[in-house]
């Protein structure tokens, strides 16, 4: 008597309900990363992800996280980069590094931003107009940034979250034919801890 065993491996699809639950669990975990706001959908062994991230490196983590789930054959990600920006500026009088009391609302917005993003820091970039000596103007730009930093510290922001610098260049978007007042300002740039140590 001869026995002929023919074992055929069958690809048994994973339970789609369990896979969908795991996809949602991974989505929840990824959304705990500061600046990640995504949603996902599982259908026919495919995960579709959409949303926004602030840090490009976080976007690169998303697809591999879903590809590791048994039962997921492909991941389509339409996640967009949406970096944090602070559009507010504080303007100064000519030759002055004194923060005007009228800028309290702008300072409050910066304070609120830092409260909403506890892992972020802010680079405070001072600028001055082109009138006078370049060395004096750069020092004035730095003093303006330091004055704004001091005002934020008085408002309760930890000083280690604030980095100051003075720029000899005009602020972005300000052309030579525009009023000089637009060059006498302080800008705010959100940064991470890694960017501070560079």
Outline the secondary-structure elements:
Blueprint lengths: L15 H15 L6 E7 L2 E8 L2 H12 L6 E8 L8 E2 L12 H13 L4 E6 L7 H21 L7 E5 L18 E7 L1 H4 L2
Task: Tell me about the largest β-sheet.
Answer: 4 strands, mixed
Rg for CA atoms: 26 Å
CATH architecture of the largest domain: 2-Layer Sandwich
Main structural class: alpha/beta
**The CATH superfamily title of the largest domain:** OmpA-like domain
CATH topology value of the largest domain: 60s Ribosomal Protein L30, Chain: A
Count of discrete domains: 2
> What's the rounded overall pLDDT mean?
88
User: In terms of per-residue confidence, which ranges show pLDDT below 50 for 5 or more consecutive residues?
Assistant: none
Instruction: Label the overall shape.
Output: elongated
Q: What letter string, H or E per element, gives the SSE order? A: HEEHEEHEHEEH
Describe this structure in words.
The chain contains 5 helices and 7 strands, in the order αββαββαβαββα. With 198 residues, it is an alpha/beta fold. It folds into 2 domains: 16-81, Histidine-containing Protein, Chain: A (2-Layer Sandwich), CATH 3.30.1340.30; 90-196, 2-Layer Sandwich (60s Ribosomal Protein L30, Chain: A), CATH 3.30.1330.60. A 4-stranded mixed beta sheet has the order 4-7-5-6. The termini are far apart.
